[in-house]
Amino acid sequence: MPVIYINIQKLKKLIEKESLSEDDLNEILFSLKSESKKIDEATLEVEVNSDRPDLFSVEGIARAIKGLTRKEMGLFEPKVKDSGFQAVIGEVPSRPYIAFGIVKGIELGEEGLKELIQFQEKLHVTVGRNRKKVAIGIHDLRKVPSTNLTYSMVSLDREMKPLGDDKYMKIKDVLSNTQQGKSYGDISVLGGAHPAILSDGEIISLPPVINSEITRLEPNTKDLLIDVTGTEKTTVLKTLDLLCSVLNEHVGSLIERVEVIGPGSNDYRKDPQLGRTKIRLNENYIGKILGFEPSHEDIIESLLRMRFGLSEEQKGEIEVIVPEYRLDILHQIDLVEDVAMAYGYNRIPIKNPTFHTEGSLLNYTLSGKVARLILLGLGFQEVSSFTMVGEEAKMFEGENDRVIKIKNPISESMSFLRPNNIVSLLLVLRENQHVELPLKIFEMGDCAFERNGRVIQKKTIALALMKDELSFEEIQALVHSFLSSIGIDVKYRRDENKYFISGRTARVIANEIPIGILGEVHPHVLTSLGIKYPVGAAEIDMDILSKMIKK
Which of 2, 293, 418, 551 is deepest in the core (most CB within 10 A)? Predict the structure, then answer.
């Protein structure tokens, strides 16, 4: 969860409540799924839930607090006008989408500048996926050379003045010699060119790498030009909406729109768009989820305190306007959670159950206990890993089986659902090659893949043996001992699988039913994963095995 540091006095000034006690502030933040502690007399550390990027800044926190304390309820209405700035967008294949916005009348100061940069970086890490999906540039508007902006690919031999340097440098030197260039320089380079934002011929930004020294922010900066670039248009536009709306919390501030003319003939808009959505919320649905039925008045007040708008009310249903900065609200279930937060979890009535039940373990759980005990007796160690893996998953695709990619992963190492448990065991072995061999591990859990357009989900148990020298018979003997100890008679049939060595792969058969596969892992898989030792592996379908154990 992101941790931010905010100035206590600035927060109290924004919420216009100097007398707010530390305990009251902690309680309010806790109701927003955030935990806080005082670092010193001036600074508060706040751990924010990652689904609320609007709370990554003191302005966003202040807006939420004013709602919960009934200081300001309902939708925040942004102050907007046209700016006179125009941006012409060229063809930028490596980073095709960009949005611009202006916010004027910001009171920064030293602390405010630090908090603004902190806000920017937290968005880079979370929403931006370390700048690969979205990157943000913030400039001192007064230093921008012209009201005409362009976004295009420029040669790596073009010169700019990178942030923190008084001298002009070639872009290729910026990418290779600066810290920012070393960290992010390879994200958007394409064919000897790099995306750049220009004003009056000057490069003012090299997204997603670095801004120019020309438009450097200062503590006395009051007017901001914001650019957001990325690989997904909707996320780019919503991120700009979030930034402009939250910064508009400053008293006297103003949002100004920039004309954006895209490469397409019909691609014209004004940013930020500050787009709001509407979601219909069923009151019976709230009662079903929360286990009690709050009154209509309580629901309305809770929504207003969470800074939502209401556009229409019908019997038992409310049409809720979701503000542009609430990127986390996608479905009415999200609104129910906000209603519960504003209503107060401690106010939800406690009910004793009106029925009696006796619990029992599932057959899968009982079978799993048996399997675990036997494998531990055979000298295996159990591991437990995430059901998500990285690009390694692609090596385990079958002829008709495809791996499932996660649309919005939290990191590159968790971008696919694992198609089997063997891939997870190999990743564990890769990180433990320094321990004494042989190494015998197993894992039981879920995996999923796509077959002929359908998602197939399985529960399997996988075994792996890593040692200096390995034969097929060794992993086969372990599988045989495991299944025989359960009381299942098995036989083996020669098989082929691309992640096992040809001729050293077998299908495991019980009662004429295929229940698993075993073999020696192919050297190209081991080399690709960086594993130096031979590995034998097997995987058994626990759904089938559980039924056999039950019989």
Answer: 418
**Model confidence pLDDT, tens digit, residues 350-394:** 888 778 888 888 888 888 899 999 999 999 999 999 999 999 999
Is the full-model pTM beyond 0.85? no
Contact present, 459 and 543 (Cβ < 8 Å): yes
Give tens-digit pLDDT for 180-235. Answer: 999 999 999 999 999 999 999 999 999 999 999 999 999 999 999 999 999 999 99
Write the DSSP assignment of 65-129 as a string of letters. Answer: HHHHTTSS-S-----EEEEEEEEEE---TTS-EEEEEEEE----HHHHHHHHHHHHHHHHHTTTT
Virtual torsion, Cα 164, 166, 170, 171, nearest 10 deg: 20
Preceding omega of 523 cis (within 30 degrees of 0): no
Helix (H, G, I), strand (E, B) or coil at 465: strand
β-partners of residue 4 are 46
Q: What is the pLDDT of residues 307-354, one digit of tens each?
A: 999 987 777 899 999 999 999 999 999 999 999 999 998 888 888 877
Spatial distance between the Cα atoms of 424 and 387, rounded to a whole number of angstroms: 8
Best CA proximity match to 402, nearest among 424, 419, 420, 414: 419
**Domains annotated on the chain, with CATH:** 3-68 (3.30.56.10), 80-271 (3.50.40.10), 277-344 (3.30.56.10), 363-550 (3.30.930.10)
Give the angle 451-409-332 at the CA atoms, nearest 5°.
90
**pLDDT of res. 549:** 78
* pLDDT score recorded for residue 501: 95
Nearest in space to 36 (alpha carbons), one of 305, 66, 27: 27
Rg (CA), the chain: 29
Mean of per-residue pLDDT scores for the chain: 92
What tokens appear for 317 in the block?
């249903």
**pLDDT tens profile 55-81:** 999 999 999 999 999 999 999 999 999
349 cis-preceded (ω within 30 degrees of 0): no
**Measured distance CA(389)–CA(463) in Å, rounded:** 18
pLDDT of res. 18: 67
